[in-house]
Amino acid sequence: MEYKIKSRIWIETENHILLGEGRVTLLKAIEETGSLSKAAKSIGMSYKKAWSLIDAVNRRAEKPVTTSSIGGKGGGGAILTPYGKSLVDAFETINKNCWKFLDEQISKISI
Amino acid sequence: MEYKIKSRIWIETENHILLGEGRVTLLKAIEETGSLSKAAKSIGMSYKKAWSLIDAVNRRAEKPVTTSSIGGKGGGGAILTPYGKSLVDAFETINKNCWKFLDEQISKISI
DNA sequence: AATCGTTATATTTGTACGAACATAACGCAA
DNA sequence: TTGCGTTATGTTCGTACAAATATAACGATT
Lengths: 111, 111
Description:
The structure is a homodimer. Chain A is elongated and about 60 Å long. Chain A has 4 helices and 4 strands; from the N terminus they run E-E-H-H-H-E-E-H. Chain A has a single domain (17-108), classed as Arc Repressor Mutant, subunit A. Chain A is α+β, with helices and mostly antiparallel strands. The longest helix of chain A is centred in the C-terminal third of the chain and has 27 residues, at 82-108. In chain A, strand 3 (66-70) and strand 4 (76-80) form a beta hairpin. At the A-B interface, strand 1 and helix 4 of A face strand 1 and helix 4 of B. Strand 1 (4-13) of chain A pairs antiparallel with strand 1 (4-13) of chain B.
């Protein structure tokens, strides 16, 4: 019985995905780097894909999840809003709880 | 707060997927129809894809999940083994429990 | 005004995956 | 022995999605 159980969770609104694992790791990278391009590079994602993901998240969310500025000192940047942080936190706690729950389930049922 | 949380689970063995939602619906269709080609058609899947999925499942599982016969009355067929049934049952109960758990989680945390 | 690093966006190129098609083998039934 | 419906497998073709490339706009700093 070396069977393992895995899961992925995501948050939807109006039948469209708002937040999944990939978007969350991107948002966390933005928080750490203060820049969308640096965040994308740090997680091995193309800038274009990162930008379109963030664009989709901000369109779907009730409030902005990131804010960005163009030009100026350092060329500009992007930061995670407090609302974005709360979303990321909620996602991660629920995700960890889900993993723990599933481990309990698989140990309960023997196959 | 019209945010919904969704999930997909799957069973792995040795870092390879053994069973996910698609494979489980295919296995259930085999149980109902007694034939791989009929099962594939009933769920709108090509025979080749269905066959390769079932092949992968049987290679990875500890014991055979389906058995098949070629030729004879009706041309042959495929059936779900008792072990296959137990795997399907385990997957579905854990999956339902996971959904319920996540609904509780999202109602607990307000975002 | 020239430079720099960034956001923002369009366009082209590549590729992985499924769809579609083709065919062999099999064993019962007529 | 011919036909049938199935399992089993290979091969070709499309297409959606990611990767790569290109370019404009922006604003502080020098």
